Every structure is written in C-alpha cells, then in structure tokens.
Amino acid sequence: MLVDRQPGLSVRLKLTLSYAGFLMLAGAVLLVAGYFSLSRGFHPGVVFTVRSHADLLHSFAPIAATVLGFLLAFGLLGGWLLAGHMLAPLSRINDATRMAARGSLAHRIEMDGPNDEFRELADSFDTMLERLEAHVAEQQRFAANASHELRTPLAITRTLLDVARMDPDRDTAALVDRLQVVNTRAINLTEALLLLSRAEQRLFAHEQVDLSLAAEDATETLLPLAERHGVALETTGDMALTSGSPALLLQLTTNLVHNAIVHNLAEHGTVWVTTAAEPRAAVLIVENTGARLSPHLVATLAEPFQRGTERVHADQAGVGLGLAIVKRIAEAHDGTLDLAGRPDGGLRVTVRLPAA
Questions:
Q1: How many of the other CB atoms lie within 10 Å of CB of 338?
Q2: How many helices (H) and strands (E) does the chain have?
Q3: For residue range 106-123, what is the model confidence (pLDDT) as tens digits?
Q4: Residue with the larger pLDDT of the pair 128 and 168
Q5: Which helix (H) or strand (E) holds 270?
Q6: Distances in Å between the alpha carbon of 51 and those of 40, 56, 58, 60?
Q7: Sheet holding 336-341, edge to edge
Q8: Do 246 and 279 meet the contact criterion of CB atoms below 8 Å apart?
Q9: How far apart are CA 277 and CA 353, in angstroms?
Q10: Closest to 271 measured CA to CA, from 216, 233, 327, 304
Q11: For every residue of 297-347, which 3-state class applies, written as one string?
C-alpha cells in the first residue's frame, strides 16, 4: 500500500547539511577558543599591533568570517560528494526495488566491495528476490496446472452431455455413472486445492500430536483399500510427539499411506509405516514395494500434478497433489520431506517434524 507523503529533503542533502553544520560548529568553537586565548594574553602596557579588546575583536572578526565561510563552502561541497559516494550503494538497491515493483524479479544487485551494512542489505535483497522469483514461478506453474486439471473434467462433462443430447437412445444409467466419476474427480481436486492453500497459509492452531496414533488411524482407515489391492500394511514404531494441526498431520499420514498402497506392485505388495522419536524431531517413515524408480522421477514426485505414471495403478490415478500436499503440510509445520527410491524397488518417504 502506497502512502501519500509530503516531499521532503533527500537523505544526501540531509547528510550534506549535517556534515557542513558540524564542520561549521567545530570551526566556530576553535575560533572562539582562539579569540579568548588571545584576549587573555593581551595587556595594555604591552606593545601589540592592537591597543584594546575592541581593536582585537575588530581585527579578528574578518579572519573568523573568512575561515567560517571557507569551512561552509568546503563542508557543503565535501559533504555533498562524500554523501553521494556513501549512498551510491543505496541508489543501486533503490533502483532494484523499483524494478521489482514493476514486476521484474530477475534483476540482481550483485554488489561488490567491502562487507559492510550496504553489502549485507544488498545480499539480503538479492536472496529475497531469488526466493520471490522462484515462488512466483511456482505459483504460475501451479495456477496453469490447476486450470488445466479443472478444465479436463468440465470438458469431459460437456462432451458427455453433448453426445447424450444428440443420441436420445443412449444408455442413461451409463451416462450417469460416467458423469458421477468425472464429478467426483473434480470435487476431489477442488478439495485438494483448498487443503493445499490452507496448509500454505498456516491457518491452524497448534496442538500436541502423536504421529504413531496418526499412523494407526490412517492404516485402519485405508485397510479396505489395501486389501482390494492385495497390499499388506505393517505399522511399527514408538510414540513420536510433535506440535501442529491434528487434522492436517492426519491428512499428511493418510496421503502417504494411500500413495504407498496405490503406487505398489500389482499383487503381494507391502507398505511399512514407522514412527520414531529423535532428540529434536518426530519422524514418520512410509515405505512401499514397487518398481525401481529413477532419481529424476523421485525428484519430481512432490511437485504438484506429478502423478508418477510409471508406478500407478490404472484405476487410482488421483489428482496429482498427494505428495505436494504432504510437502506443504510438512513445511507449514517447520518440517522436512525426503523422498528416496528403495534399492529393491518402491519408495521411501521420511517426514521430520520438530519434536513437541
């Protein structure tokens, strides 16, 4: 928000006036001290070029005025040049700020020179611009992907309705079933987007949460899904206390277990859910069997709308936000998410959250 302020003196002019004023004050003090030193040493009986205090003052005043005038001119000129030199880095920072305000986030100050306050400010500003540029680029990609993902079920729905209108004899039950599937997908995507936004904005109260209980709840809820896919669930571990939103942390655990089930072997797969308490962290580890994953694929799995099509069941494509939501929830709780391919195939996901 821009505030309308009255125009005032520039910082450079203020520094110039301050420097000149200080120089004038110091000169005046020295001149007064010099005058009183001469006056104390003056005696009427002693031969001087002046014969009284009035003559001394009359002779000293022009010299003092000349000196003060020189100090004023020197102070203004020197102060202006010195202030300009000292504030030159600030001008570069100000120019970069204006460019950023116009939407150009690629510019960097890259200030050289000694490691002083201006250098630290410029480096901090460059770091902020780098993070802001990355965040804006990520948001733009996310918005584009979200628009595409939301447009797909709407386009399918419109196509189905157009076909039904042109073919009155079409099987209505099959059409309704298909529309229900498409509508459910759109609802799931919308709910996932809302959950992702909530996690990013940290709109939740903090409570003590035991990750081992969250793991038990998630595996119990998803046990029927695991049985349908022929996947065995194994839950072990100790109490792991952290602080955060119970609902979001349960969602995090549920997403991980759900992904581990649906991204698994076609039959006889296994999912291991483990919790542990470290000195400064509560740890949740979810592993699953499956195909070997390339490091490149693993590095992209936590990005929005990356479904890992090399390892997903055909009927469980999801909306591509499972691990993205996990990552955002972990970050919202000041935690970390680590993904690693297992040597025998499958994925190992490790979430570390600050210990309560």
A1: 12
A2: 8, 7
A3: 878 877 777 777 788 888
A4: 128
A5: strand 269-277
A6: 14, 8, 11, 13
A7: 231-237, 269-277, 281-288, 347-354, 336-341
A8: no
A9: 10
A10: 233
A11: HHHHCCCCCCCCCCCCCCCCCCCCCHHHHHHHHHHHCCCEEEEEECCCCCE
The one-letter amino acid at 219:
T
In the DSSP assignment, the letter for residue 55 is H
Structure tokens at 287: 């592993």
Contacts 24+ apart (CB under 8 A), 126-134: 129/96, 129/100, 129/105, 132/100, 132/105, 133/105, 133/106
User: Residue 354 is which amino acid?
Assistant: P
**Residue type at 82?**
L
CA 224 – CA 213 distance, rounded (Å):
19
Higher per-residue pLDDT: 317 or 355: 355
Task: Kindly tell me if the per-residue pLDDT of 211 is higher than 70.
Answer: yes
- pTM higher than the cut 0.70: no
Q: Are strands 241-244 and 207-210 parallel, antiparallel or unpaired?
A: antiparallel
**In the CATH hierarchy, which top-level class contains the domain 207-354?**
alpha beta
Question: In 3D, which of 352, 306, 346 has the Cα closest to residue 325?
Answer: 306
SS3 category, 257? helix
